[in-house]
């Protein structure tokens, strides 16, 4: 079984995620795009694990999922707080931390 | 007189090739009366401290205490001198150890006093003439509300000078040396509300610093060479030092002597120092300060005897100064400045003599003593005249004062006859001896000294004629009167000393007396009998006096100084451009140097540092703009960075 289609899919998903992070303003969408990139990376990891026939990649994928879950909790909390104070979920509006 | 030949001229550099070594200093320990030696210095020092610390409470009796202190020192000094006379000739040096001043490693300085034939004469001169000047000041400064302070400074001056001549170590001498510098600063600037006096005091201090640097370096060199700075130690070890070291020592000490004694090239402060009250001028010129340089050279004879080069330098400095001062004295209308020029000139005679070896040392000291008498006399006389003329110093507004001030006139005349070397008066014996010695060594030097005697006669006759004789040219409101007894009695005593000061030479006493300190004199070879030189001197002196009489006695003196005068007169009025030279050679370049240093500091050093900080500040201000606060731009940067790393890794793997 060729790994190429999986890796191509992984690359596509990663690219979509990266482009989404760069071009979208809505924090929720940016967040989802980040998740998309995570999952693209996970897909690549399990693909390589399958290819090499060991569990390293799968374990790494699990770690990524755990970290992603924790990150979602914190990230969503921040986004909700920002939205409550500013009535906006645009990442460009939250630009106070600058020169 | 021998004729001037080429060999005579070239002989200048080898003045003292054949001289005997000066004896080493070997004092006995102080016992009996001599254990009181420290009191000679302590009395005026304590008196100065009391006068300066007691404040207004001492105003009523300050001048009495101030006058009593040097007189007490004089009486003690006289007692010790008599004791010294009673000792055998080779055992007349007494040293008193006071305490260990400095003791660090190899360097040990004992604070001690040395009372020998040379110091004894100085002690008597300083306290004797100084005491008379103190008494005179009681009258002269009677109307000055800061009289007590004045006496405090005078006592400090005397104490410092006594320490200078009594110290048994170059470092103790240096302490007195600096004390004299301080006291002269305080006294020259005593009327400090006058800007000219404040400036003159500063000038004297600064010029003296230059000389002091020379002496300080000489003392350091002594320590590195001999490991000691005491007279005993240095005189014993001097012969073992290299010729170069000795010459350096001699020249450095000469620099110090030039500063204190106002010799060319450090002469410029002396004429300005006339800004001080007249008794100060008398004290500086007669008893203290300017004699310190001569003392230093004579005291260090054990070094100078070993270095003909430095001796020649001393002779040259003395010769130049004696003519320099005399020329200045001829053109000054300010009576004190005319006398100041004459002091320079007379100290020049002493320096000249001090450079001529053992016989010269004696006559230098002899002339120093007689000069102390008649110069104090002349200055105090001038002060008396100024006192009578409402502190006017311009001789062109004097004239015909003789009948009104008979005592001042008579005493001034004694001083006048002494300084021009009228036969029988003290100056005749001492100056004649120096001229003879100078001729014995070198015809050129002798002729210079002879010429100086003629100029001296000229300017002193001029002072005499313009002040006491001729027509009245007084300023409006002048009411000349004789000074009170407290001023005239010191004048009379000094006049008497000016007349009979020559007795010191009676039977060659002073020569014999000083021989153990400065070494035996050898017979100086003169091509002609001594009376020829004496006669020649008298002829030159008479010519100078006659010329002055023709110019200032026969013709009426104008009340304002003529503006159209010869270039020589103009130069002499400007102190032979001594100040101009100093300004051009040292002040202006110094100013340019500091100005350029400030420029380099502002633009160069500060500019580099400031420029660097501005560069960093500016560029970081620009770099700061990268922090936009837009999350997405950060994300783009991260992506770009990640891509860069990945592509680099790929490229490396593929390559």
Can you describe what's shown?
The complex is a heterodimer of chains A (99) and B (655). Chain A is an all-alpha fold and 99 residues long. Helix content of chain A is 78%, strand content 0%. Chain A has three helices and no strands. In chain A, helix 1 runs antiparallel to helix 2 (27-52) and helix 2 runs antiparallel to helix 3. Chain A is elongated and about 50 Å long. Chain B has helices spanning 6-10, 37-54, 62-85, 117-140, 147-166, 170-188, 195-226, 231-237, 243-261, 268-272, 278-287, 290-299, 301-304, 308-331, 335-354, 358-388, 406-420, 426-441, 443-468, 485-500, 509-518, 530-554, 567-573, 578-624, 631-654, and strands at 28-29, 94-104, 107-115. In chain B, helix 17 (406-420) runs antiparallel to helix 19. Residues 1-20 of chain B have low confidence and may be disordered. In chain B, 53% of the residues are buried. The longest helix of chain B has 47 residues, at 578-624. In chain B, strands 1-2-3 form a three-stranded mixed beta sheet. Classes of the chains: A mainly alpha (99), B mainly alpha (655).
Note the topology.
The complex is a heterodimer of chains A (99) and B (655).
Chain A lengths: L3 H20 L3 H26 L3 H31 L13
Chain B lengths: L5 H5 L17 E2 L7 H18 L7 H24 L8 E11 L2 E9 L1 H24 L6 H20 L3 H19 L6 H32 L4 H7 L5 H19 L6 H5 L5 H10 L2 H10 L1 H4 L3 H24 L3 H20 L3 H31 L17 H15 L5 H16 L1 H26 L16 H16 L8 H10 L11 H25 L12 H7 L4 H47 L6 H24 L1
Parallel strand pairs in B: 1-2
Antiparallel strand pairs in B: 2-3
